[in-house]
Amino acid sequence: MVLITLVSSDEQNFPVERELLKQSGTIETLIVNMNLDDEDTDAAAMPIPLPNVKGDVLEKVIQWMEHHKGDPVKEGDNEDNNAEIVVPQWDDDFFKPAMYGSKHLELTVAASYLDIKNLLTLSCKAISNTFKGKTGPQIREEWGVPNEFTPEEEEAIRKENEWSE
Amino acid sequence: IFYHPFSFPQRSVPAIMTTPSDLPPEILDMITKCLPVTDHIAFSRTCRRMRKFVPPCEMEWVKLEWHPKQNMILLYTNIEEKFKSEPFMIYHEQAYMTERKMCDSGKVDCWRFFKCPPKISIWLFYIFWFFIEYLWIWIFSDFLPLSCFHFSPFYLFSVCWLAFVFRIALIYWPYVFAQSNPGYRFFKAAKIKHLVLSEHFRFHIGNLEALSILLTGCNIDKITFIVDNVTDANLCKVHEFFALIRVKKVAFNIPKGKSRSELTLTMRDEFSVGLALAGIEEITFSSCKFYDSDRERLDRGFGRLWSAFGRILTCDSKLNTNEIENGVEDKSAYLLDLLVKLFNAGIKSVIVNINALTDRTTIVKHDLDTLLRKTAALKKNMSLVIHCQDEIMDGTDAGSRPLPKGSYRSDDDEELGRTVEINYYSDSVTIVYLSTQPKAEL
C-alpha cells in the first residue's frame, strides 16, 4: 500500500493511501505529473504541502475520502449541481457538527481547492439546505451575519421582491 | 517544511471564514444554484455582498392554465408555487378576473385558453328563459287567460326582448365590469413566447376586449388561433388586437369544413394590409380537423336564434353571403393571389400548409412560375415556405411527371438584380429571394 504524506498549512503531516487521493483532482494531477506514485524514485517520499488547508480541515477531508473510497469520481464541471441532489444520511451527519460555523465553510473551500467534486457538491448542497424556507433575517441570525442594511435599504429590497411574498 | 518543486497556487480567501458571504464566488454560485427562487431571494437579503452577488430575480411564468369549470386560473411559476387567482366570472366563452392581480414582469412560454363548455351557457339560458316565462305567466295569469297569453304577440315580444336583454348582459357584463376597473391588467410587462388560443376560444368582440385588457403591456412573439366566421366579422378588431399585444407572428388555423367560407376573409385587401400595419412579420396558414359540433347544433336548432342575436351584437359588419359563396372559386388563382397580396402588403415571411388554403394536395410547376413572376414585380424581400403533401408536378396533363427533388434556381431576373432559389425536398417548397446585388433595393 503506497502512502503519500499531505502537509497542512499548520505543518501537520497526514499519511494518506494513494488510492484515496484519486478523489482529489488537484492532488491526482500533481502525483501523475511528478511521478509521485513511482515507488522506485525519490519523489515518492516527498510530502505534498497544502498551504491553504488547515490541519483540522484536512483531517475532515481525509475522513470523508475514506468513507467514500471507491465511489465513482465525477469528471468535468459540476453541471448537475442543482436542487435535485440529495445529501445522503452519512454525509448529513458528517456535516452537521460543523454546520453554521467556519469549519464547514473551510471544508467547502478545501473541497474546491483540492478539486474533490463530490465533497464540494454535497457540502454546497448542505449549506444551501440551511437557507431553505428561511427569510433573510433568519439566515443572518443562524449564520451570525451582521445586518448591514439601513431601514431604507430593507424597504427597497422588500419592495423589489414583493411579488415573491 | 519541505516545499515541493510544484507549488500550489495561493487563494485569496479570508483567514477566518465566519459566514457564507466570505466564501469565494465560484462556491457561492454553486450554493445559489441549489436554491429555489424564494430562498435565492432570501439569501440575497442577508448582506450587501450577497445582494451584489445574487442579482434580483425575475418571476417566470412557466405555465398558465385556465379551468373554467372550476372557475379558476392557475399560474405555475419558477418559484414552484401556484398562484390561484379566483374567482373568475365566466359567461359563454368569456372570463374576467375580479381581483386586481399584477406582477412587474413575467414570461409565459405557452398560454392556453379554454372556454366554458357551451352546454353550460345553453342550459343557463334555458333555465333563465323558462324561469322568466313562468314568472311572466304567474304575474299576468290573474289578468289574462293563459291560452290567450301564450299566443299573443305581446308574449312573443316580451320573451324575445328578455332574451335580447339577457344576451347583452351575458356578453357585456364582464366588459362593463372591466371598464369600472380601468387600472386592471394581468401582466405589466410579460413576455409571452407563444399564445395559443384553443379551438374553443372564438375571436368575437367580447373575447377580444377581455383579452386586450388582460394582455395590455405584454410582448407576445407568436399567437395561434382558429379562424372562423366570427373572426371574419371582427377582422378590424383582430388587427387592433394584434397591434395592441405587439405580436410579430400569427398562425391562422383554418378548420376543415364543408363551406370553407372562412377563407374569404383572407382575400380582402384589408386583411393583408391590416396585418402588415399591425406589425405582423410572419404568417402561417395551417389546417385543423376540429369542427365545432356544438356550434353546428346551435345553428341548426334552437341556437339559430341565439346565433342571430350573437351575430347582431358581436359583428362589426354583416357577413356578405355572396362573397362567401363566390369568393373562393378558382382555388389555384386564390392561393397565388393571396400570397401576392400578403407580400405586397409588406409581410416578410409566409408559411403555407397547402391543404389549409386549397383542396389540392399538390403544386404544379406552372403555378410556382406564375407566383414567381408576380412576386418578382413587387421588389421586396420575402420568404415563402409551402408545405405540400404530394410531389410538385411539371404539368397538369396525364403525362406530367414529378419534379426532381432537391434545390434549383429559377431563371435569373437580371433587371431586378436577384435570383430565386427553390428548395424542394420531401414535403415542402421553400422559396427565398436572393439578392445578387447587395445594395440593390429589394
From TrEMBL, chain A:
Ranges annotated as biased composition (Basic and acidic residues): 156-165
Pfam families in the cross-refs: Skp1, Skp1_POZ
GO molecular function terms listed in the Swiss-Prot or TrEMBL record: cullin family protein binding
Gene3D superfamilies to which the protein is assigned, alphabetical: Potassium Channel Kv1.1, Chain A
SUPFAM superfamilies: POZ domain, Skp1 dimerisation domain-like
GO CC terms: cytoplasm; nucleus
Keywords: Ubl conjugation pathway
GO terms classed as biological process: protein ubiquitination; SCF-dependent proteasomal ubiquitin-dependent protein catabolic process
Top-rank lineage group of the source organism: Eukaryota
Similarity-based family: Belongs to the SKP1 family.
PANTHER family registered for this protein in UniProt: SKP1 (PTHR11165)
Job description of the protein: Probable essential component of SCF (SKP1-CUL1-F-box protein) E3 ubiquitin-protein ligase complexes, which mediate the ubiquitination and subsequent proteasomal degradation of target proteins. Regulates cell proliferation during embryonic and larval development.
This protein's name: Skp1-related protein
Phylogenetic lineage: Eukaryota, Metazoa, Ecdysozoa, Nematoda, Chromadorea
UniProtKB/TrEMBL annotation, chain B:
Coiled-coil regions listed in the entry: none
Superkingdom of source: Eukaryota
The name this protein goes by in its record: F-box domain-containing protein
Species of provenance: Pristionchus pacificus (Parasitic nematode worm)
Signal sequence, start to end: none
